[in-house]
Write a structure and sequence with these properties.
Number of strands: 3
CATH superfamily of one domain: Ribosomal protein L7/L12, C-terminal domain/Adaptor protein ClpS
Order of helices and strands: EHHEHE
CATH topology of one domain: Ribosomal Protein L30, Chain: A
Distance between the termini: 64 Å
Shape: elongated
Radius of gyration: 25 Å
Strand order of the largest sheet: 2-1-3
Helix content: 25-40%
Largest sheet: 3 strands, antiparallel
């Protein structure tokens, strides 16, 4: 009979390793001002893509208009990219050149 390891007398003990999970890095979606995208459309994007209330959307739109940029939201990387792409695709479909970028927080 071949020499098989004796499982009961192996001597090795399985230990449970403590894996520590880190929170994912967050990224901000930044809207950039331009001379062609209407303020109403920016509010529409903020409400429908970024799920902002009317008051929040209006406040962010004014920040974009007055300061040149505004933060639409802060998300994990994949979500931030998806929302930025969705906002820009909607803008292009309505013939606006709205620019959204994703930056590490």
């Amino acid at each position: 009979m071949p020499d098989l390891p004796d499982i009961e007398r192996d001597g090795e003990v399985l230990t449970e390793s403590a894996t520590k999970l880190e929170k994912p890095k967050l990224y901000k979606v930044v809207l950039h001002n331009d001379d062609f995208t209407t303020q109403e459309f920016v509010v529409f994007i903020l409400q429908h893509v970024f799920m902002r209330s009317v008051a929040e959307a209006f406040t962010i739109m004014l920040k974009v208009h007055n300061e040149g940029i505004g933060i639409a939201g802060i998300y994990p990387y994949e979500v931030a990219n998806m929302k930025a792409e969705k906002a820009m695709n909607l803008s292009r479909a309505h013939e606006y050149p709205l620019l959204c970028t994703v930056e590490e927080e």
